[in-house]
């Protein structure tokens, strides 16, 4: 039959693209003290306004094994192969749950082909490889070819972001390697990135302008060394800054970066005001 792509809702793939490329997106959940939501079924403006006014940081929960297993079985039963890419196993148990679901499915469908990747990343650093792999799957590429494409893209993704405040990362327990900043969080604007699946510090500066300048410098260094296959600008309630960043990138590199809002699961840990660049290197690092 065909190769089908599966991912989770932190990949920030919009519904239209999901439908066009037949991508299965398995949602995580968000829980406030007074209200719970399925990721992807809540308006972002409503969520972030509620996040700002909430006295506590909401929690998130991974999909139950049964939901992932059902998604696998539905495709396998139709004769499809599966390539699945999930957010970093260092910040969620979704990947491990998917491995358990795969084992259960293989007991029933021993000949099924299911490849599961731990992206060691999140947001569009997951979404972009899924989208590109799904395009190749629709073009008729084989399971092995799609596996290799996904592996190559994941190895060449970069995600840098600047939080407006450390409050959400600290309270949400997702501060990772950035914990060393806690003694001076009121005085800095850090440029953060994902290293081995967790948040780490690329640079500490005093203003947002300097932080953005440094983030663009990191992008430029990689562009010079490896070339750029694609760039995506992401944000949380910071569209104006995202548009400015997009114009800079378009003028310098001739690319047209899409602007993609960050979804609730990642957003509850990083907070409103975030600005980010996600990009894929053209040549192997």
Describe this structure in words.
The structure is a single chain. The chain is of the alpha/beta class and 285 residues long. The protein folds into 2 domains: 3-28 and 63-155, Rossmann fold, CATH 3.40.50.10440; 157-281, Hypothetical Protein Tm841, Chain: A,domain 3, CATH 3.30.1180. The protein has helices at residues 15-21, 44-53, 65-76, 94-108, 124-138, 143-155, 167-172, 208-226, 239-253, 264-270; strands at residues 3-8, 24-26, 29-31, 36-38, 59-61, 81-86, 114-118, 157-162, 189-195, 198-205, 228-235, 259-261, 275-281. The longest helix is centred in the last third of the chain and has 19 residues, at 208-226. The chain starts with a strand and ends with a strand.
List keywords for this structure.
single chain; 285 residues; alpha/beta; Rossmann fold; Hypothetical Protein Tm841, Chain: A,domain 3; 2 domains; 10 helices; 13 strands
How would you summarize this macromolecular structure in one to three sentences?
This protein has 285 residues and is of the alpha/beta class. The chain contains ten helices and 13 strands.
